[in-house]
Specification:
With 425 residues, the protein is of the alpha/beta class. 49% of the residues lie in helices and 14% in strands. It has three domains: 146 residues, Toll/interleukin-1 receptor homology (TIR) domain (Rossmann fold, 3-Layer(aba) Sandwich), CATH 3.40.50.10140; 197 residues, Rossmann fold (3-Layer(aba) Sandwich), CATH 3.40.50; 55 residues, no CATH class. The protein is built from 15 helices and twelve strands.
């Protein structure tokens, strides 16, 4: 799924923007448009340009209005969005209202000099399509997005392997996973991922599923991918026993569409899929972790009672545990939070899998990323970039601009998306 930015003036092209958004969503992509904005402290132009930078494709729709020109600028927001997409070389799909189309005079600028200049710039720089109504626009967009293959976008997302400085976690995961071969019993594999909430837990789990685990399982292109399940964690304040019962019901509903199925039935359902299975749980940052870890330990014990898996059947459970971001607290709260997190880290490290006849690992904590690791990541992907010298020159500037020696992964991810949009081949 790609993020697709929809750029145009608003009041005169509301119906066309909605038609474009629907066409984008029908193809399985995410449309990004000003209609979706919520209240924010960001100025409209700053928000718009940031969203352009965050997208993988750009749709420009131009009729006969030039649009609002912000104070201090000589171009409209719509024109500045187009310029940003050109500057970053984001794939652009441009659609112009046909000169013969019936168009209300109220939606035409008295002086069309500037809108004509924008339309001419679009026509000279790119292949454009012309439309007379919403149906034609929708059809053009559908064809254009389909022509651009998904592979190019997939390649770009792989350049962001979520991301740098996760080699320690990957090495520990590989080492723990190797013990499966020495384990005579075919048991579920448990993986616990933890760190502050800004460290992209979900993206790391998805990298595990799409990249790391297929390598460890020696899956080739002809074999099935890893099937993913996301059973709901129970966040209620009920007793541990009742919450455990709900977790079992949620899992059995996901696997066999029967909330009362037992472990044997769930294993049979997994074996019947004939492909590796990954079941992901995510615990919120504001959870009462004393209760959550007790519940987690009981759930792991439940998995330990399952029958052995069939040869060739692999089952991985991952548990993402997030700590609140310390930057949100006062100094006193940071002190108290630090003590509770240290206690939590100890409890996580003491989780036992072998006593439940399982193979498992608690990965090293996900932490913020220093500049040297980002430079190493870029060099590993040198073939993906047009100008490595410029890439290596810009990486330290990210840290200088954000005034930090190590950046949280989600903050770094935003900056590197801009970098890859700018320099990826």
């Amino acid at each position: 799924m790609a993020k697709v930015y929809i750029s145009s003036t608003y009041r005169d092209l509301r119906a066309e923007r909605e038609a474009a958004a629907q066409a984008v969503r029908r193809l399985g992509h995410q449309s990004i448009a000003m209609e979706d904005y919520t209240a924010s402290s960001e100025k409209p132009l700053e928000k718009c340009l940031a969203d352009v930078r965050d997208c993988q494709m750009f749709i420009g729709i131009y009729a006969w209005r030039y649009g609002f020109i912000p104070k201090g600028y000589k171009k409209s927001i719509t024109h500045l969005e187009y310029d940003e997409a050109v500057e970053l070389d984001i794939p652009r799909f441009l659609f112009l209202v046909h000169e013969d189309a019936a168009w209300p005079t109220s939606s035409v600028d008295d002086d069309r000099t500037m809108i004509k200049a924008l339309r001419t710039a679009a026509e000279e720089a790119s292949v454009v399509s012309y439309f007379k109504n919403c149906d034609e626009l929708s059809a053009h967009i559908s064809v254009s997005l389909r022509v651009r293959t998904d592979s190019s976008l997939a390649d770009r997302s792989e350049v962001l392997p979520y991301l740098c400085d996760r080699s320690e976690q990957e090495v520990i995961l590989m080492s723990a996973f190797d013990s499966l071969d020495m384990n005579k019993l075919r048991r579920p594999f448990i993986c616990v991922i933890h760190g502050e909430q800004q460290e992209c837990h979900w993206e790391f789990v998805q990298r595990m599923r799409r990249v790391l685990l297929p390598k460890l399982l020696k899956l080739d292109g002809k074999q099935a991918s890893i099937k993913e399940y996301l059973p709901k964690w129970d966040f209620s304040s009920d007793t541990i026993e009742n919450r455990l019962r709900k977790l079992r019901a949620n899992l059995s509903s996901e696997l066999v569409d029967n909330s009362k199925a037992d472990g044997t039935e769930m294993v049979e359902a997994i074996i019947g899929l004939r492909q590796p299975v990954m079941i992901n749980y995510h615990l919120p940052a504001d959870a009462n972790f004393a209760d959550e870890l007790q519940l987690l330990d009981r759930l792991i014990a439940f998995f330990g009672g399952w029958p052995d898996l069939a040869p060739g059947c692999d089952l991985i459970f991952s548990f993402g545990i997030k700590y609140k971001n310390r930057q949100e607290f006062s100094w006193l709260e940071k002190l108290m939070h630090g003590k509770s997190v240290e206690k939590l880290r100890g409890s996580i490290a003491s989780l036992e899998f072998q006593k439940h006849n399982l193979v498992g690992v608690v990965l090293p904590e996900l932490t913020s990323v220093p500049c040297a690791e980002v430079e190493h990541w870029a060099l590993k992907h040198e073939s993906e970039f047009r100008d490595m010298q410029k890439v290596l020159r810009e990486i330290p500037l990210i840290y200088k601009r954000l005034k930090s020696e190590a950046l949280p992964m989600d903050q770094l991810l935003d900056a590197l998306k801009v970098l890859t949009n700018k320099y990826c081949r």
